[in-house]
Specification:
Oligomer: single chain
Strand order of the largest sheet: 11-12-13-14-17
Structural class: alpha/beta
Number of strands: 21
Largest sheet: 5 strands, mixed
Length: 411
């Protein structure tokens, strides 16, 4: 049965994690405890108040794999504002792509938090009276002491000096991939978030001492929610590297998982091909890769190829990959993140459908209902979802609208 705790209790549990850490690996490794991350998040609250940010207000911010981004993201949530993560400029390399993605959203938001480089570009070309705020300006050195006091108070009794959000308040907004002219921002409440993360933790079989490893970008729900938030809110360690390091050195990511004892990771199908091709190159450097600790490598986010799954298994079984470690699942932003996953200790399965081998998506998470609306006599049709993590509202061209059908299904 899916459990929904109050947001205050969830933050209290995270603030109590003085021995659980997030490691971010770039040119060097930065390690921060979850308690310290909450303290840094709470240290942003005085600046948010001074800027006049309202509780319940959506605030845009560019999602870098950094403690700056995460402390602002969680700081907004703690304060009761609503973070809206977006791809950073470096993820949108084409000329004008960053402003092209950002422009339609700036029309409907008062504030954007970003890096100094992004700040200069947006302020010059697209701000139109909006408040463009560098990450660093949201915390003064003097605020850190107050942040630690707030984290201690949270740890002690689950309260802060400001009212914490309620379970049906908005937690964040996730803009779906490809949103451009008429952006669709999925509104995720704390009820959606906390119920989905609870069900995700059980579907992944989290145990004390587990470690989530990821290179996924944090503007995408598979990286931010299924990987980072699933670790933080379920109280297991997390180790992240930035996407370009994975693309430049995919086997280096596997060495990182080995060194950190990672037990869980999420990836899209293309990443399996990237890793398999790197492994099969002549004179590939496989030193330091041992995947015996990796219990769940869940593949989703795009069509999953049976051939990709088998090729990866063949390439890495000799490096310790367990027979049931590679598995599959299905998720989407409208459902917070994960909806289905292979059963524990079962690995991935395939079936033949219309003469084509397909990888199955596993079982529905606890509390979720999946309906296939198909024409009479047909096996394929329209997928509809219902459950505690399913968002009921979305921003469409700046207006918050109800998006479920009359039976409460998302389609």
């Amino acid at each position: 049965m899916t459990t929904v705790v109050s947001p205050a209790h969830a933050w209290q549990r995270i603030a109590a994690c003085t021995d659980r850490t997030l490691t971010i690996v770039d040119d060097d490794a930065q390690v921060i405890t979850y308690h310290d991350l909450i303290a840094q998040a709470a240290a942003r609250v005085p600046a948010l108040r001074e800027l006049g940010v309202a509780q319940g207000e959506p605030v845009l911010l560019t999602a870098h794999t950094s403690t700056d981004f995460l402390s602002v993201y969680f700081g907004l949530m703690l304060y009761g504002a609503v973070p809206v993560p977006l791809p950073p400029k470096q993820a949108l390399k084409g000329a004008g792509q960053f402003l092209g993605r950002l422009g339609p959203l700036l029309k409907h938001h008062h504030r954007l938090v970003c890096t100094p480089e992004e700040h200069d570009e947006v302020r010059t070309d697209a701000s139109a009276g909006r408040q463009i705020i560098p990450f660093a300006s949201l915390a003064q050195a003097s605020d850190l002491k107050a942040g630690y006091a707030a984290a201690q108070q949270l740890h002690a009794d689950g309260t802060t000096d400001w009212p914490l959000p309620a379970v049906d308040d908005d937690a964040y907004v996730q803009y779906t991939s490809g949103s451009t002219a008429a952006p669709r921002g999925v509104v995720i409440t704390y009820r959606n978030l906390l119920s989905n993360l609870d069900a995700t933790g059980r579907s992944l079989g989290f145990r004390p001492g587990d470690v989530m490893a990821s290179w996924l970008p944090l503007h995408h729900d598979m990286g931010l929610i299924c990987s980072l938030a699933a670790a933080v809110f379920n109280g297991i360690d997390a180790v992240f590297t930035i996407p370009r390091r994975f693309l430049h050195d995919p086997l280096g990511f596997l060495r990182m998982t080995t060194q950190t004892g990672a037990t869980h990771s999420f990836m899209p199908n293309f990443a399996l091909e990237w890793l398999t091709n790197a492994c099969n190159k002549p004179r590939a450097d496989l030193h330091g890769i041992d995947l015996r600790e990796l219990r769940r490598l869940l593949i989703g986010s795009e069509p999953v190829s049976a051939d990709s799954m088998r090729r990866f298994t063949t390439a890495f079984t000799g490096l310790g990959l367990g027979p049931t470690a590679l598995c599959s699942g299905y998720g989407l932003a409208e459902a917070t993140c994960e909806v289905t996953a292979s059963a524990l200790d079962s690995g991935f399965r395939t079936e033949i459908f219309q003469d084509t081998e397909v990888v199955t998506c596993g079982r529905a998470l606890d509390g979720y209902e999946i309906r296939i609306d198909a024409p009479p006599g047909e096996q394929a049709g329209h997928v509809k979802l219902r459950g505690p993590g399913i968002s009921s509202r979305a921003y469409i061209d700046g207006t918050k609208l109800d998006v479920l059908d009359e039976e409460g299904f998302c389609d």
